[in-house]
Amino acid sequence: MVEDDLDIANALIPALRRYGLMVTHVRTAADALAADPGDLVLLDLGLPDGDGINVCRQIRSVSDVPVIAVTARGEAADRVRGLRSGADDYVVKPFAISELLARIDAVLRRTGLLQPRPRVTVGDLTVDIEARTVQVADKPISLTRKEFDVLAVLAAHHGRVVPREQVALYAWQSVFEASSRTMDVHVASLRAKLGRPELVQTIRGVGYRLGSD
User: Fold this and answer.
1) Which stretches hold the DNA-binding feature (predicted)?
2) Which of 8, 113, 197, 203 could pair covalently with 108 via S-S, beta carbons 3.0-4.6 A apart?
3) Is residue 181 classed as helix, strand or coil in its secondary structure?
4) d(CA 5, CA 178)
5) Residue numbers in the chain where pLDDT is lower than 70
6) Residue 2 pairs with which residues in a beta bridge?
């Protein structure tokens, strides 16, 4: 994480670590370029010793590590400039941490660094993510494409809470769907078809979890 604002860094680091990520924090462009890039770079564009756009270009010139620009620059021209400099995604401050986590997940998945479990079994429910099949008590269950996508992202993170924004990015390719009643309708339909409503748990104010209790 390249972030010169300590208040922002101190808020983000615990959240990222709770999500299971190991975080190295630096505050300047020089330190960013000297650091091991790790598996992903969260890059503020307004740094005290240089423009983050140039940092992104220099990172991209020597590495294909995924970069997410995290910045207060929200104009369309700034977004275009950031993405053209080599950033894989662009998040504008202020943002919900759940959205940032969803975007991290999406970028890691696109770049192949996050490999979902191909087959997940919870009780008598079996989800084959690669084959896109679902069975309950060894009987096949027919789901719509969106219903399966919702179940697949929960199964890939079995036992962990998945923010609504992350479900929306996976199933609808848009975080804006996270606040829509459409998602609630699909989740309700999914529970009804599985016949195991307790498996798809709602974590109020956060998202959903696939679990057995």
Assistant:
1) 117-212
2) 113
3) helix
4) 28
5) 112-117, 175, 178, 212-213
6) 26, 43
